[in-house]
Amino acid sequence: MSIEKYTTAESFKKYGLIVIENVLSKSEVESARALIIRKVRLMNDAQRFISIREFCEDSELLNFLIKIQFNKKITSKLKEVIGENLHYVNDVDLQCNMFGVSGKASGYHRDCGSEQGYTQNKYLFSKDYCLGKVGLYLQDNTYELGGGIDLITKSQKDFKFFKGNSLFQLGYLNLIQKVRFFILKFTGNNKLFPIKAGSAVFFDSRLIHRSSPPHSIRLNEKECNAGRVDFETLPENYSKFALYWQAGSKKNCHEYLTNIMKRAVVEEFIGDGRKLNELLFTEILSYSFPDDYPNEYKKQARLNNLNIYSFPKQNSSIWKLAFQLYKK
Ligand SMILES: O=C(O)CCC(=O)C(=O)O
């Protein structure tokens, strides 16, 4: 598959994604991988992500984050797609050797709040909806080892506006989604997006996607369910590292964060997240920009004229408290 046609700003509207090539050089990829491997070696087995807190507290990780998020190739392409209204939501996570390929749909999913149902999130059907995930990959995506994502291009269009009629919107979405997932049962292993190490993808949060599975490795149940694969099973040199965050219009960033708030309550205080002892959403909500960010990050955001969207300080204080109380 050629990714050339996905490199223009128009590609985001048409296919639901845009590829930003060669964000990092080969040597930059190598040094980023060496840094992350060092950090992963210090993690306990249950930890799968490097999250916003670690980025803010560790100067090496912070430099890496700044280098990527404020990279000119990335910011200029995102501005081409979104315009000057570009905002980041820093639900930053650096995923380490994780593959979500389990369940009925073998890992295929949408990011956009589908977890708590589409019905309340009417904005997803709006014609001017503009929010997506930026992913920067530190390895080539291959059939044997994975390393990137499988994508169903144009599937963001399943959210049709239908003059605002919810019945038609949801009816159509449910129907087409059933058809898509049925077809994916037979074709799903053939959707690898051949991204190269050091390149990035910005994809609409409504686009169906999943981790590209590492077909040459036998994953156990936990690993298929996005548990971290250790370096014995997937040696350092072949390991998968992907940095993700959200970008979009201010309005959609606000709606996204509001949805994260629901997910924090439902998934981290009364649901599955408690079992994992992961408070990823609570942690994101506990960071307010600019107050909770390191000076260097604030400086770079200012110099690069980039908006970071978060809830106000007084709101994040509650989540800080929740984080302290619940984090074991
Ligand atoms: O494994 C990956 O890189 C895909 C991650 C993903 O699907 C997600 O974060 O929603």
Task: Describe how the helices and strands are arranged.
Layout: H1 10-15, E1 17-20, H2 26-41, E2 49-51, H3 52-57, H4 59-69, H5 72-82, E3 87-96, E4 131-137, E5 149-152, H6 166-187, E6 200-204, E7 208-211, H7 221-224, E8 241-248, H8 250-269, H9 272-276, H10 280-285, H11 295-303, E9 307-309, H12 313-326
Parallel strand pairs: 3-9
Antiparallel strand pairs: 1-6, 2-3, 3-8, 4-6, 4-8, 5-7
The chain binds 2-oxoglutaric acid.
2-oxoglutaric acid binds next to strand 7 and strand 8.
Give a written overview of the molecule.
This protein is α+β, with helices and mostly antiparallel strands. It has a single domain (4-249), classed as q2cbj1_9rhob like domain (Jelly Rolls, Sandwich), CATH 2.60.120.620. The chain is 40% helix and 15% strand. The chain has twelve helices and nine strands. Strands 1, 2, 3, 4, 6, 8 and 9 form a seven-stranded mixed sheet that branches. Strands 5-7 form a two-stranded antiparallel sheet. 2-oxoglutaric acid binds next to strand 7 and strand 8.
Number of strands: 9
Q: What is the N-to-C succession of helices and strands? A: HEHEHHHEEEHEEHEHHHHEH
Mean pLDDT: 93
Main CATH class? Mainly Beta
Radius of gyration (Å): 19 Å
| Count of alpha/pi helices | 12
The domain tally reads: 1
Net shape = globular
Terminal CA distance reads 46 Å
Quickly list its features.
328 residues; alpha+beta; Jelly Rolls; 7-stranded mixed beta sheet; two-stranded antiparallel sheet; 12 helices; 9 strands; 40% helix; 15% strand; globular; binds 2-oxoglutaric acid
